[in-house]
Amino acid sequence: MENKTNGENIHKGHRQRLKRKFLDNGLEAFSPHEVLELLLFYTIPLKNTNDIAHELINRFGSLSAVFDAPVSSLCEVKNISENSAVLLKLVPQLLRYYQLSPDADKSMNDTNYVRRYFTALYIGVKDEEFKVCCLDNNLQVISCNTLSVGSVCEVAVSARMIAKAAFDANSQCVILAHNHPDASPNPSQEDIKLTSDIASALNPIGIEILDHIIVGKGSVYSMKDYGIID
Fold first, then answer.
1. C-beta atoms surrounding 35 within 10 Å
2. How far, in Å, CA of 68 to CA of 60, rounded?
3. I need a labelling partner for 14 at 20 to 30 A (CA). Which of 83, 100, 179, 208 fits?
4. What DSSP element (H or E) covers 134?
5. pTM here?
6. pLDDT tens column, 149-197
7. Where are the beta strands (DSSP E) in 141-222?
8. Phi, psi at residue 82, to the nearest 5°?
9. pLDDT of the residue at 111
């Protein structure tokens, strides 16, 4: 009986202490399982979320892998309901949405802003996606559309598709982008040739390719910065 009481005392006030730790220090002071533990407070009100958080990390291998796991797989973990799974899946998309919120003072002529924008655009994206970003006369984003999913050398990405996106947005300037999930962002010869071919087809109809951005694991490559695109 005494051990049970001591166990209860150990956990008494734990949620409030963890919330206060976040308010005082932010997530920088948190271990991965504590991040999950804090999140799960809001969908699991009456259970010890510490054990559940550890189980999630053990099962999927890392915090990012938990957020990237399918809802069906998350729900296989004991005490993870659909509500909890949806909350976990919401996190990377909230981060992407926050990072992509319009900034009236920034344009795609700002190299640092371009890198930050496209890094955010591919948060949580596990497949290779080719996108076209249409810009206005101030080089601010009008629209950003996914044209294809799959390896760039295997899927059909045509100048016609890009021209249609630009005409639909009433844009004369675009940035191309794709990602190399879990790999270096350095372009392949196919990436460079594809970019050159598209630019040659679009220039005569008044559509300029400002850059082709490749987002890789931990870094970003700009064909403009490396002189591949003038």
1. 18
2. 9
3. 83
4. strand 129-135
5. 0.70
6. 876 544 457 899 999 999 999 999 999 999 998 889 999 998 999 999 9
7. 141-149, 173-179, 208-215, 220-222
8. -60, -40
9. 84
